[in-house]
Description:
Its EC number is 6.1.1.17. Belongs to the class-I aminoacyl-tRNA synthetase family. Glutamate--tRNA ligase type 1 subfamily. This protein is mainly alpha-helical. The protein has 18 helices and 12 strands. α11 (317-332) crosses α12 and α15 (386-400) packs across α17 (425-437).
Amino acid sequence: xxxxxxxxxxxxxxxxxxxxxxxxxxxxxxxxxxxxxxxxxxxxxxxxxxxxxxxxxxxxxxxxxxxxxxxxxxxxxxxxxxxxxxxxxxxxxxxxxxxxxxxxxxxxxxxxxxxxxxxxxxxxxxxxxxxxxxxxxxxxxxxxxxxxxxxxxxxxxxxxxxxxxxxxxxxxxxxxxxxxxxxxxxxxxxxxxxxxxxxxxxxxxxxxxxxxxxxxxxxxxxxxxxxxxxxxxxxxxxxxxxxxxxxxxxxxxxxxxxxxxxxxxxxxxxxxxxxxxxxxxxxxxxxxxxxxxxxxxxxxxxxxxxxxxxxxxxxxxxxxxxxxxxxxxxxxxxxxxxxxxxxxxxxxxxxxxxxxxxxxxxxxxxxxxxxxxxxxxxxxxxxxxxxxxxxxxxxxxxxxxxxxxxxxxxxxxxxxxxxxxxxxxxxxxxxxxxxxxxxxxxxxxxxxxxxxxxxxxxxxxxxxxxxx
Length: 468
Ligand code: GLU
């Protein structure tokens, strides 16, 4: 059997982080088993579905690197097929027309509420002849759901879950205007798309029992179901915006790399021993449904950031320059030149060791391409006092005569320079750092000087030496 999974978002908003995880699990399971990962856009709610949301979802999936097989299916475009199936059920006696008016339904609900009973359709048109149909009322089509016994789900994550059929009423398959309900559409699509595994959030568990009844009514094979516990905030409460319930695009904007987000989402609900760092290749190799946890996982930005720092260090230097370039350009108000990009690429290895996000990285790379004179932060300014400036003035002269402008030669030069003045290395190196970077934190300062080159280094030192 070829495994077929699917991701079935409703395009009523961006691809949120929980949806990203559902997509990831489905994608990984398909890739692990050599199966297929399909994408279905559940756009039947015409009021709430927008093209902008479809685009945001596709964009989010692409950014996460979750490629789907074949074309994305639009559920709305399949509405005739959904209606056809409802009529098949009708013809087979598995469904019936219900002519209840909205007022009647309202009365029914009110009476149930008053009696303290759960609200459900009472089945009054189940066995009533069509000849009773009131004139001018467009009927809905309802499933003739089993009233006795129970429906048992062997969930791949939750284990065995049972619901008494008496608790489930006769759901609507086709509305009075002929449009299919969500429950019907999902079942027909999963069947027609040969979906073998439905992996989704456990907020869909109740729907699943109703969907199973539709599968049974049609005599179709059931897919396997796996309901993943939802993601909670660090405090155990439902995930809120503050906790990270954001669109995938917000993670990109916050400077996270897609491979880090993938790794993080994987660990939110799936485990492989104590492994925290799991590359996508390993994830594809190891992913299984048995190791999805049964309890809700908690979103933790600190963990995501640690993983991101790890993947930043592994990332290709040219790629990272490409990622920080737009941020730097916006910040500097000009385009980066080829020389800037070249310098940043050569500097990247030193920069990426310290950065936790792309935002950090852009910030820490800024001094390389910033206009002179640099602006000095408070601590840097403090180092450029009279003594610091005096040392820098002399150092500029020493550097100017240095034939070999390499990190090693410059370091030797500064060591000798400090020693000759009875100063510790830091007393000279720190003002130098302030002069070259405008800050007191940077990659190793002699490497910075080598990368900047003689001309820029000397001119920055002279700027700083002259700074009042
Ligand atoms: N369209 C549903 C949602 O966005 C998912 C349905 C499903 O996975 O079956 O929550």
